[in-house]
Amino acid sequence: MGMTLYEKIYQQHKVATMNDSTDLLYIDFHFIHEVTSPQAFAGLKQAGRDVRNPVATLATMDHNISTQNRRIDGAGDVSRQQLTALKQHCDEFRIPLLDITHRDQGIVHVIGPEQGITQPGMTIVCGDSHTSTHGAFGALAFGIGTSEVEHVLATQTLPQQRAKSMKVQVDGQLPAGVTAKDVILAVIGKVGTAGGSGYVVEYCGEAIESMDMEERMTICNMTIEMGAKAGLIAPDEVTFSYLEGRPRAPSAQQWHRAKARWKTLKSDADATFDKTVVLDAGSIRPQITWGTSPEQVMALTDRVPDPTQFDTSDLQRSVADALHYMGLTPGSALQDYPVDVVFIGSCTNSRLVDLRQAAAVVKGGRVAPHVRALVVPGSAQVKREAEAEGLADIFKAAGFEWREPGCSMCLAMNDDIVPAGKRCVSTSNRNFEGRQGRMARTHLASPAVAVSAAIHGYLSSTPLVSGEGLI
Amino acid sequence: MSNYFHQGAACPLAVDNVDTDQIIPKQFLTGVSREGFGEALFYDWRYREDGTKNPDFVLNKPQFNEASVLVAGHNFGCGSSREHAPWALAQFGFKVIVASSFADIFYRNCINNKLLPARVTANALESIQQSISDSADSQQARQISVDLKNQELILANGEVFSFELAFSDREQLLNDNDFIGMAEQYADAIDRYEDSRANDAPWFMPQSFAV
Description:
- The complex is a heterodimer.
- In chain A, the strands form 6 sheets. A 5-stranded parallel β-sheet of chain A has the order 5-4-3-6-7.
- Chain A is 32% helix and 18% strand.
- Chain A is built from 15 helices and 21 strands.
- Chain A is α/β, with parallel strands linked by helices.
- The longest helix of chain A is centred in the first third of the chain and has 17 residues, at 77-93.
- Chain B is of the alpha/beta class.
- Chain B has a single domain (6-165), classed as Aconitase, domain 4, CATH 3.20.19.10.
- In chain B, 31% of the residues lie in helices and 14% in strands.
- Chain B has helices at residues 20-23, 43-46, 84-92, 104-111, 122-134, 167-174, 179-184, 187-200; strands at 6-12, 69-71, 96-99, 116-119, 143-147, 152-155, 160-162.
- Chain B has a 7-stranded mixed β-sheet.
- Chain B is globular, with a radius of gyration of 20 Å.
- Classes of the chains: A alpha/beta, B alpha/beta.
- At the A-B interface, strand 1, strand 2, helix 2, helix 3 and strand 5 of A face helix 4, helix 6, helix 7 and helix 8 of B.
């Protein structure tokens, strides 16, 4: 019987069978950041253990840093202590660190791919749930907790139980103005926030195959938002051309051998999936979340849902609670609601392609007077490239704040916070209560929709669709 | 010595999709130790904006202040991978979380912290919630005994509900094995794997990264 891509990678990394339900998997690469690693290093020291393979880990500063400057205390003294601890631990255990002033610093899931570290067929982990991003390259990548961070540092392995396989097939071509963010929000809306629990998801279909790598990363990034362990896309020529020549990609003499191996990384025709979900790309419209979970999503042109239209009393209650928190009236149109903040950034949508999409929508417009709008590039490299292309000038001229790289308002650990009761259109990945600040109201959307909201000053009504995006 | 993994009073939190941002908000993730998270558990629900306790939140009600079993809803612990979430729950005093499903990463983090994520059917969860609500004022009537070997929850009224748990997870909770030490027993196999990988796919073996 054939194997899925997930099963192939899992099998290739099995070091040992520990018991009936658990295998010991080898981890090819490990990313760490300042928030989920300090306790892991403390555990190593307490047990007198060393890091098994320091060069198989890369550290970056991203979650807790200021995006207004490159000072280690830019986001306050508490942040400084955490960043200092990361530097000390990396020095002590000989782990490479892209610190706040490094020319390659950035959000952990942006720098891995752009450096060419992320490659097809790898196993990749990080103490961050959006590690699924790297699955866009056909790598098995997933988030782990701090105890597991310590385990990987010490042994370069992780005990794992085999997950089930889900196929998400997006058939046909996307309409103009519909982006990868709209696709993944539509998928989550269909599958639900727990529908992927216990699964590794493989995305396929014409719409997925026609996406560039940055768009595929957006898709895989939000796999965790439907509860799945990881998301995968089989590597193809798009993947190979993205990787070729990057600093950490296979050298010229190994390239052809690597590529030949990578071409075998696809699900067999007779592979069995435990669950299959099919979407018609042509029916997907620009999406925006209305509630406090990524599954509470609708087309931008739809009306706010009515709790009474949901099946169960539990659902009716949770929808009513979400609408109350979000300050939305059932049946109302989104253009009725003014926007206070717009955030373009995060490991979901802060790459160069995302910023190009966003800049194309600006088209000489200006951020509405009552809106505060931020653009936070995903890495120092993205920032340099965006500045060289003139994208930064477009944003600044339109009244957007142009920031330094970091996680920023996605989780609001630094000083980029949405005030209580304020409404934010965000290109990030989570709209939970309080995620962007206590009592903050978050609407997840694509960069194009976010820019449109910043300029109109409202949760835009039917946007005009042009070849270049939404206006 | 008791045959039970844990016996304690239950507290209801009948909310679906409780995410890790709610369990432990991000402003409490800035430390460098594993301690001090209990007071921040469910911070935005437990405390008002002025810092005073919200008397309406279940954990602030006096009859539940000794609770050690949290009976939650569906998809508990969704969202981020922060292990601070089970640290906060455990440091607050919880030993067991009962739910009809758990987010994968949160579930694993619980096991690694000896916090039992007991997964029951949706019908069983409804019955347990009902039983706790009916006896809200009696700590004794809200007692739940956890038989880990047989994977059963025994309520004070005698009702018994089974819960799901992988064999290896049960063993990890029952035994005081060193999580990392277990893998270190396979050191030779790891060495062999790395040797074969270096020959078979050398581009996978990371070289020194000069930064």
